[in-house]
TrEMBL record:
<protein>
    <recommendedName>
        <fullName>EF-hand domain-containing protein</fullName>
    </recommendedName>
</protein>
<feature type="domain" description="EF-hand">
    <location>
        <begin position="167"/>
        <end position="202"/>
    </location>
</feature>
<dbReference type="Pfam" id="PF13499">
    <property type="entry name" value="EF-hand_7"/>
</dbReference>
<dbReference type="GO" id="GO:0005509">
    <property type="term" value="F:calcium ion binding"/>
</dbReference>
<feature type="domain" description="EF-hand">
    <location>
        <begin position="214"/>
        <end position="249"/>
    </location>
</feature>
<keyword id="KW-0732">Signal</keyword>
<dbReference type="InterPro" id="IPR011992">
    <property type="entry name" value="EF-hand-dom_pair"/>
</dbReference>
<dbReference type="InterPro" id="IPR002048">
    <property type="entry name" value="EF_hand_dom"/>
</dbReference>
<dbReference type="InterPro" id="IPR018247">
    <property type="entry name" value="EF_Hand_1_Ca_BS"/>
</dbReference>
<keyword id="KW-0106">Calcium</keyword>
<feature type="signal peptide">
    <location>
        <begin position="1"/>
        <end position="21"/>
    </location>
</feature>
Length: 249
């Protein structure tokens, strides 16, 4: 008689293989920025211990919060019915549902980590964005490279001196003054890179007049171009949507 555990394990492997075959044929290096912003929000909701990486424990805990009937399978109806957890769009739920069976469970979580190179014990933001945007049939918003998206977020976090997830004009001006090493009131090409330290971006994309000068007024024009709602401050979403497109990888 075939061991029951062996059969269950074989079925699990078949399910996982089916999942990976579907995902690996459609790995995205770029996606619609609106979808990427939604996935990013989901990433930080899952990262409940705020260490900027996801573990198996993070993901299992996150989806089990919505397991209202305790059967180990989470349906979208359970997600919608739980008043104690934030709602997330159906498209995100479907992206989590790696084997397309209409429920979220341990197989879906394990599929995430099997996709990650190396030990497969943690998932970072870029890996998470890549996996879940690849699981979507289509993404929304202007297309952006995922690597550029992540670099833009890192830039924002560096410039956001008080860690309030908002950039003000004063913070932007402060970055200008810090980058202006020779204190001549203008940024040279190398100094522009000090202002945007994580960016692999041609300085002329940051300051069109770099061959002549790059003054604080030029930098504020860049700020204003990103400030879509004209409230004199930049959210992380505004920053990524504008500056991510300036990055060249």
């Amino acid at each position: 008689m075939v061991n029951r555990v062996t059969v269950i394990f074989f079925v699990y492997l078949c399910a996982v293989h089916q999942v990976y075959s579907a995902i690996l044929t459609n790995i995205r290096s770029e996606a619609g920025v609106s979808s990427l912003l939604k996935i990013r929000k989901e990433y930080y909701m899952v990262d409940f211990d705020d260490d900027n990486v996801l573990t198996h424990h993070n993901c299992h805990r996150y989806i089990r919060i919505d397991d209202i009937n305790g059967d180990g399978d989470i349906t979208y109806e359970e997600v919608e019915a739980n008043p104690d957890t934030p709602r997330f769009p159906m498209e995100v739920f479907l992206a989590w549902d790696a084997n397309n069976d209409g429920v979220l469970n341990d197989i879906d979580v394990n599929a995430v980590f099997e996709m990650v190179p190396g030990t497969g014990n943690i998932v970072d933001l870029q890996e998470f964005l890549t996996i879940y945007s690849s699981r979507m049939n289509e993404t929304t918003g202007p297309v952006m490279k995922i690597q550029s998206f992540v670099q833009a977020e890192r830039d924002f976090l560096i410039i956001d001196e008080n860690d309030d997830n908002i950039l003000t004009r004063e913070e932007f001006k402060l970055e200008f003054r810090l980058a202006d090493k020779n204190k001549n009131g203008n940024l040279e090409e190398t100094e522009v890179r000090h202002m945007f330290p994580m960016r692999s971006t041609p300085p002329e994309n940051i300051c069109p007049n770099i061959s002549v000068s790059c003054s604080v007024d030029d930098v504020i024009l860049l700020f204003d171009a990103a400030d879509k709602n004209q409230d004199s401050q930049l959210s992380v979403d505004e920053y990524i949507q504008h500056f991510g497109n300036l990055i060249q990888n």
